[in-house]
Design brief:
This protein has 3 helices and 22 strands. With 387 residues, it is mainly beta. The protein starts with a helix and ends with a strand. The N terminus is likely disordered.
Length: 387
């Protein structure tokens, strides 16, 4: 019995190991399929800032974050070079067939960007961070995933971590989501970013209800169009203050196919969108000492991808963000970002499937309400293998 037990366990382990070594990276244990995937990516970037550079280990050195582009009336031009593999990621997923024929699925995904850890002197160690962790069952999703307000499928293929950073909705967070047909609805984790005179940006977690979204997707052979809506509550409850303001937004995005080529786009407008748009390039609202005022914004992008042949392709991208700041509140809000825009072009080469080498040139500009302006010119080279 002991020999039989260990022989069975050994054969099972060998079968799992063989399955994980197969191209599908899948193993089947009983009624559950297990998958492993991700990619390894090296990025090398030369960044030229018009108004002073960002310090070492700053997030804006790892990828383009529009709200961090330096602006100054006196700083001089500065250039820096960075190289890292922090965007590399991996994920595990399972799919279990139930007795009624339905599936229950899970996914956990990690990467190493936007985290602490070691330093660049010796180890370059970085802590893994949770990207996604969720369960799906009969149309329901429970866990952390991409916001239902965002259309991930509209993001163009770029070497930069996000690409159209100021122009896209970009949020992952905990939620409960239900999808039926072309519709999906969600209740998501609330969080507000508020500008105050005393503390600058304040991140509050005082909302009495979740953020709500609704989304409709229309698909065809020509591509797809997604329209999503967001309603949430901005809050500021600090000391004697107990203020809230309704926030809402709408976003239209999609993809149009032209043979192998495609056009991707997004246009988002709303009141108090804050952290949902442009990697929080603007806060959701301003607290004037008595009331909370939501900030209106408009953002969007358009990107065209052209396949030159079976191995070479390029993406041409334009992205923008514009905030309608209340000038009467400038003594409180300081000198907030009024607008940001960027454009980029790349050339990607895949000698074999899933292996890509590329070069990308990006220009980004940020302007504050007072008229201060700063630019970033970035040349980026990457090598990536997806598995």
């Amino acid at each position: 019995m002991t020999i039989k037990y260990f022989a069975t366990k050994t054969l099972t382990a060998i079968a799992i190991s063989a399955a994980l070594s197969a191209p599908s990276y899948a193993a089947e244990i009983g009624n559950t399929k297990v998958n492993y995937g991700g990619y390894v990516k090296l990025d090398a970037m030369w960044s030229d800032f018009s108004d002073g550079s960002l310090p070492s280990s700053h997030i804006g050195r790892d990828f383009y974050v529009p709200g961090t582009t330096p602006v100054s009336a006196s700083s001089s031009e500065d250039a820096v070079f960075d190289m890292h593999a922090r965007q590399s990621r991996f994920n595990f997923s399972t799919a279990t067939k139930l007795a009624d024929g339905s599936d229950i699925k899970t996914k956990i995904e990690l990467d190493f960007i936007v985290t602490g850890g070691g330093n660049e002197r010796v180890s370059n160690s970085y802590s893994p961070r949770l990207r996604q962790a969720f369960i799906t069952y009969k149309g329901w999703l429970f866990g952390q995933a991409w916001s239902n307000f965002q259309n991930v499928g509209a993001l163009p293929e770029t070497l930069d971590f996000v690409g159209p950073s100021e122009g896209t909705v970009f949020v992952r967070q905990a939620m409960v989501k239900y999808a039926v047909g072309n519709w999906s609805f969600s209740a998501e984790n609330p969080e507000s970013t508020i500008t105050t005179a005393q503390q600058g940006r304040v991140v509050t977690d005082d909302a009495s209800m979740p953020d709500f979204t609704a989304r409709y997707t229309h698909k065809g052979d020509w591509g797809n169009v997604v329209v999503s809506a967001l309603a949430r509550q901005l809050t500021y409850k600090t000391g004697a203050a107990d203020e809230s303001e309704t926030s809402f937004g709408i976003s239209a995005s999609g993809r149009v196919n032209f043979g192998k080529n495609n056009l991707k786009f997004m246009l988002t407008q709303g009141k108090g969108l804050g952290r949902y748009v442009g990697l929080n390039v603007a806060n959701g609202g301003v607290y004037d000492g008595n009331e909370l005022h939501a900030i209106d914004s408009t953002s969007g992008f358009i990107g065209y991808q052209h396949h030159w042949n079976t191995q070479f392709r390029s993406t041409f991208l334009y992205s923008f963000f514009s905030a309608d700041n209340d000038t009467n509140l400038l003594p409180i809000s300081g000198d907030p970002t009024e607008s940001s825009m960027s454009y980029s072009a790349n050339l990607l080469y895949s000698p074999v499937k899933k292996l890509t080498f590329g070069a990308e040139y990006k220009v980004g500009t940020r302007e504050t309400q007072s008229g201060l302006e700063g630019d970033i010119n970035r040349l980026q080279f990457s090598a990536k293998y997806a598995f």
